[in-house]
């Protein structure tokens, strides 16, 4: 089971590109679960329409009753997944078409519990940013990883 989890908040401006990049993966996820954290810019409604327009029966979008914040929204999402591989997605990401297949392959017949992938920072025009790296030379993003649900339970969360 491969699940993609996405927390959204006022991401209407950029979210369509990420939804497209997930939908067009060369290995289709079994479930895409999106939770909107009380957006005021129409993000929730846009995602509902997107799912309907593309007939994405394995996709689900919900909305928090109150703003919980990024961390608590992701905890809520993770608790909806029973087993398998869990991809975390930001609303303004754009995934390469082979992200799911490439990262998932590391888990075949192995004891690997988590895989972290390299990422590039892009600007509003989808150009690779010249922004300097973080301290230590890292440009890592907090959601550029995949893990087994079992590893999340064992580690007691993030």
From TrEMBL:
Among InterPro entries, the record links this protein to: Glyco_trans_2-like, Glycosyltransf_2, Nucleotide-diphossugar_trans
GO molecular-function term, one example from the UniProt record: dolichyl-phosphate beta-D-mannosyltransferase activity
TM ranges: none
Q: Do the record's keywords include Transferase?
A: yes
- Pfam families registered for this protein in UniProt: Glycos_transf_2 (PF00535)
Keyword line: Glycosyltransferase, Transferase
Q: What is this protein called?
A: Dolichol-phosphate mannosyltransferase in lipid-linked oligosaccharide synthesis cluster
- Source organism: Streptococcus gordonii
Q: Has UniProt tagged this entry with the keyword Flavoprotein? A: no
Domain Glycosyltransferase 2-like stretches = 3-144
Q: EC no.?
A: 2.4.1.83
């Amino acid at each position: 089971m491969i699940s993609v989890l996405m927390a959204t908040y006022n991401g209407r401006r950029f979210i369509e590109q990420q939804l497209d990049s997930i939908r067009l993966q060369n290995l289709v996820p079994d479930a895409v679960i999106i939770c909107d954290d009380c957006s005021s810019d129409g993000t929730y409604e846009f995602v509902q329409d997107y799912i309907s327009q593309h007939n994405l029966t394995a996709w689900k979008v919900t909305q928090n009753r109150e703003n919980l914040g990024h961390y608590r929204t992701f905890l809520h999402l993770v608790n909806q997944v029973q087993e398998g591989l869990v991809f975390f997605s930001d609303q303004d990401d754009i995934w390469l078409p082979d992200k799911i297949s490439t990262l998932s392959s590391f888990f075949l017949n192995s004891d690997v519990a988590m895989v972290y992938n390299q990422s590039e920072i892009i600007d509003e025009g989808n150009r690779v940013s010249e922004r300097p790296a973080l301290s230590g030379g890292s440009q890592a993003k907090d959601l550029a990883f995949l893990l087994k649900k079992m590893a999340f339970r064992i580690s007691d969360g993030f």
